[in-house]
Amino acid sequence: MADLFTITAPLTIRPPGGERRIMAHWFPHGEGLVYFDLYWHEGDPEQTIHRVAGPIGGDGPWKVGDHVVQVLGCHGSDPALAMAYEQWQSYLSAPQTDYPPPPLIAAIARRMGCDTGSD
Count H helices, E strands: the chain? Predict the structure, then answer.
């Protein structure tokens, strides 16, 4: 069984009746999971960081409550999402000072009640 919280491949999430989104970061939460949108730090955290409640099941794709999480497909199966992910990776690899470092991201997740595996 693939563990949703140790997988390093890019993941998408689809709410019921909604469009798939790429998760920039995801963390276990006592009620399900918390995920951050791409470019989450540039917007309102109330709109760019999401808590999804429900039991987590599956081994890829996964279900979290009524949401489906799966590995991002390639350009042939998910061209728009694959392009968005490539642009995100380019953004992250560019010299910059405004993207929060991993310890700050983990601290934000912990404030939301997540288990980040670090204190």
Answer: 3, 7
Q: 35 with 52: CB under 8 angstroms?
A: yes
**End-to-end CA gap in the chain:** 27
Give pTM, 2 decimals: 0.90
CA distances from 112 to 27, 60, 109 (A): 10, 25, 5
With residue 32 as reference, give the H or E element that holds it.
Answer: strand 32-37
Quote the CA–CA distance of 102 and 68 in Å, as a whole number: 25
Question: Percent of the chain, pLDDT > 90?
Answer: 71
Contacts by 36-43, CB closer than 8 A, 24 or more apart: 36/105, 38/84, 38/85, 38/88, 39/88, 39/91, 41/98, 41/99, 41/100
- Residue whose structure tokens are 């009640």: 113
State pLDDT tens for residues 46-85: 899 999 999 999 988 999 999 999 999 865 678 899 999 9
